[in-house]
Amino acid sequence: PRGRWQPVMPGSDSALAMGMIRWIMDNQRYNADYLAIPGVQAMQQAGEQSWTNATHLVIADELPTLAGQHLTLRHLTPDGEETPVVLNTDGELVDASTCRQARLFVTQYVTLADGQRVTVKSGLQRLKEAAEKLSLAQYSEQCGVPEAQIIALAETFTSHGRKAAVISHGGMMAGNGFYNAWSVMMLNALIGNLSLSGGVFVGGGKFNGVSDGPRYNMNSFAGKVKPSGLSIARSKTAYEASEEYRDKIAGGQSPYPAKAPWYPFVAGQLTELLTSALEGYPYPLKAWISNMSNPFYGVPGLRAVAEEKLKDPRRLPLFIAIDAFMNETTALADYIVPDTHNFESWGFTAPWGGVASKATTARWPVVAPTTHRTADGQPVSMEAFCIAVAKRLHLPGFGDRAITDPQGNTFPLNRAEDFYLRVAANIAFMGKTPVALANQEDISLTGVSRILPAIQHTLKADEVGRVAFIYSRGGRFAPEDSGYTEQRLGNAWKKPLQIWNADVAAHRHAITGERFSGCPVWYPARLSDGRAIDDQFPIGQWPLKLISFKSNTMSSSTAVIPRLHHVKPANLVALNPQDGERYGLQHGDRVRIITPGGQVVAQISLLNGVMPGVIAIEHGYGHREMGATQHSLDGVPMPYDPQIRAGINLNDLGFADPTRTITNTWLDWVSGAAVRQGLPAKIERI
């Protein structure tokens, strides 16, 4: 009953957060005693559960190799250690690790060991200055939240000691998503709520059986080769280390802009993988093997950018897709290897967050796979394909003697069960005490009797009962109270919370040459070349912003289930009633939604739960494949259901970043994350 919805203009979350931070700074509502703790020793002496680098001094001058870096003892004396320096309460420069309390706000000159005189500031001072970039009135204008409400939020947030929390998730995925998420999470650091009841906490973690565990070595094997070299997505590598950069410098050119963005301190950009391969930057691929992947449906604008190029074998000679479904991406593959789905397969996973105790779930086939069988009787699947190809290529880590145990005995990896059941054995025996033995009732009531023969055939005799117990419980779960102590909630976070991140500040954007800010700061949603999205696509011409949200009935992979379409045949496309009146629309009218990347026709719902100026599109609908289109196999038409095509997909309205040389969709300029919140749009009544 005390909840209150506060809408924020898409892509402006950091304006709201930085406005709150400014008010918190101006009114000294931060947890000063907590933020003044400069190291682990001081944290322990104070009885705290976490600490920050708020007091660590940062070199503020724009100097090569020094700008944005923490001042260390090595900078002050030639034989000093690489230990951060703080200003203690007596105004002395001291080793942060030995100081109990340090000054929060520092700006002063320091002479380095080499004679240079530099300006240093504390991390919290840098954050304060970043928050002062705009006034509260200006932040309000950017995010659409009234100034009085920004103040009320900040005041309420800081009125409960440490029993307050804020989180971020997919709503941050805009053209400034990295700094959106960081600024929101920074609010937690300012009140010192990490690992405390009522605050935020680090999850309890998982039982990792894919390791060199108590029963089997599932991470090490003879001849193992680790990935090396440059990621094709240009991630976790600085542009300044590239051949392109060196060649430009050698030729007397400015190294900026690069041909495409680089992501020096983040990884995992599926958004850049495919387009980089198709464009051959930084290098082409000879083959792409995908598994359970559908970027043409899931990445805004990618289908329009890359579909025709993916069809060209000169750009990508071989595309093998392993999937249970023919989706928007796999439909273009040279070969599709049938895969098992979640009810037919083995696997393990762990909670993303929100669970303080250690937990790992174990998935096992509850029905027999419907895929064809291999010559040796295994269901065709991703695992069967990888094992067969690896054995044909004589790769290490597969075959009759692939897996070892701690005693040096060898075991086969010829089928999926060989891998997953031994991972389960590791999980069952981890820790001080292994799990209990399953009794007959456990096995019969849970259906584990179906897989008991495979367990008995694969594992050692003393492992069978405990692995059966794992599967009868659906995984291994530490006692709930194990995630709580009298002082701490969840796992301890042993590193300092980064009020100022020197790794971020060490790098420049590969297109603009602009140094990344080492702390949260307000940037408008922007394109690759630094241009604000609203400058490229003016609000006068594109007055609406698109967002997507998760459906309560449908997901991208469940569109094939007819009964879900009985509940909701098409997705919700919502507009605020004020906008309905503005455009002369009634509830249920059909409109054409237009973005720089395309247009779709949809039925509009007028809802007060959508911010004025926003169109909200429920995700999970609007498939072009997944059984929505008829295909033929050896000339025989395959079944299809046009209902799967119902509704629209926001990602069909994504668009190419017009400022990029190497074509790709609009991505967050720092992390390369897909932008699916805040797409410029307009509508026309049909």
From TrEMBL:
Sorted UniProt keywords: 4Fe-4S, Iron, Iron-sulfur, Metal-binding, Molybdenum, Oxidoreductase, Signal
Stored InterPro entries: Asp_de-COase-like_dom_sf, MopB_CT_Tetrathionate, MoPterin_dinucl-bd_dom, Prok_Mopterin_Oxidored
CDD domains in UniProt: MopB_CT_Tetrathionate_Arsenate-R (cd02780)
Keyword Cell cycle in record: no
GO molecular function per UniProt: 4 iron, 4 sulfur cluster binding; molybdopterin cofactor binding; oxidoreductase activity
Coiled-coil regions listed in the entry: none
Name this polypeptide is given: Tetrathionate reductase subunit TtrA
